[in-house]
Structures are given as C-alpha cells and as structure tokens.
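ok so i was messing around last nite and threw this chain in just to see what happens. nothing serious, just curious
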Amino acid sequence: MKSRLRGFYWPSLSAVSICIYLLTKADTITMNPMADSTISEGDPGTPQGTLGILVAGTTGPNEGATKNRALLKFDLASGISSNAEVTSATLTVTVVSVSPLVTNLWFSLRKVAADWSEAASTWTNRLLPSVPWIAPGGDFAISVTQSNLITGVGTFTFSSNPGMVADVQDWVRAPAGNFGWILLCELEDLEKSIRKFGSREYSSNGARPTLEVQFNPQPPPLTLTLLPMTNGLFQFQFNTESNRSYTVECVGDLPAMNWSVLTNIAPLPAPANVLVSDPLFSDSNRFYRVRTP
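result:
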C-alpha cells in the first residue's frame, strides 16, 4: 500500500495528548468454495473435482497405504473489495465418513503455491493442458496456516488466527494469487487415517465447506479535521485504519527538511478516530502532518 500524508498549519503547541475512539463496525460474508477437489496418490491421473466428497488422510494397507489431500479455493473478489481489511477468517468443514480406525488426528491447512482447476487437478497435474505440480501431491507452503483435531463424523472449524487472516488478506488484495488451501493429515504415514468431507457438490448444503470472513470495507481516505479550540487547547483529529501505524509530525517553517515527531500511533485492531489535543500558543506558527507507511 502506498505511503499517505495529510497536513495543515496552526499556531504553536507543545506536548501532545492523544485520545483514541475505536470504530468496530465490520461486514461479514460467508461463502462456499468456487472450486474444491481431492488429489490422490492412489489414483494419480484422475481428476476428482466433480465428486461430492473431499478426501484427506492415508488409506489402509489393502488400498496401498496411499496419501490423499483436499484442495479448496474461494472467490473472495466477488464479495470483498481489494482495499478491505480482513479481521477474521474461519473455515468450517463437515466429516461425512471416517476410516474404520477412528483416531483423533490433527489435520492442517496450508497455502497452495500454484494455480489449479477442478477439471485437471490430480496428484501429479494441476491445470489443462497438462501442467504438472513441481512436486507430486501439490505445491504448498511448508508453514501451517491453521490446524484442527478431526475425530469422527461431524462439523469442525478451523478458527480464525493470524495465519488465516493473512492468507485471506493476501487473496483479497491480490486475487490473481488466490490458489486456496490444501487440507492434509499431519500424520500422513499413519495408515487408515482417512477423513471424507462434504465438498461443494455434496448433496446436503449444510455439509458443504464454508468460509466466513469478517472485514472492514474499503477504508476512507486519511482526513485531518480541525476542531474548535476548547479551554486554550488546540485540537484536530484524523481517521486510522486497522493494523496500520501513524506518525504525527510538526515543523516551524516551510519548506522544511527536518520534521519533529510529536507522537507515534501504534497499529490498532480496528478503525479509529484519533484526537490530538494540546495547549495553544500564539507567538509562532507550526505546521503539522500525519504520515502512514
């Protein structure tokens, strides 16, 4: 995001006093995947994007102890502005069938690093005409975005955390890089760890994956507003975005080379109005500006 600056001048003031009013209004959107698919080591050449289930985990020895992973991708650009700020992201999936060996196992989401399609994605291939993954089984981040303990049949939620928010924020701001998540068992060497999840084509709407995103809509431009003087205090306010730092600076004359820092505003969890209030002196002028990276 580009650096922004706003400013004006007023007679001199001394030390700075800051009052912050948080504005917590946010929007929420819930969506099903625009694409999802299973990629299977046991059937490395067959796309499974039209099936009603997503499979993650490892089969038993009778099926060759082969690994399975699930791909999910959501069309965030259709409902969220690229300038919106994501504050929460939660993925809910439903297990519709489990392996006969029912073990409590951790499954993780990781960010996919290359584009794929339902019509082409397999253990070895990701797009048509034939475009292979760099590594069979999908190209994805080493780091785990979020994990969840998946037991038997039922609904499970990958709750919002900084990783979930960061992934969704990246996809909101740069839709061309939205390749979704891959869902896999963290103990893939364990046989009979299969979990079958409802896909976007599953017969029951309630068992289909859903992504709930909370976000602050496109933020307004940075605006400095001069307020009436009260009890000898000079006052102005400006609006902040969430998770963004600000610096209030001043100088005695223009043009200026060296601005003095009055105060720094650390990133806040939600949009806010920041009030600057200080004693007023009339023997000199002072120019002010607010900077944000």
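not much to say yet. The chain has two domains: 4-25+219-292, 33-208.
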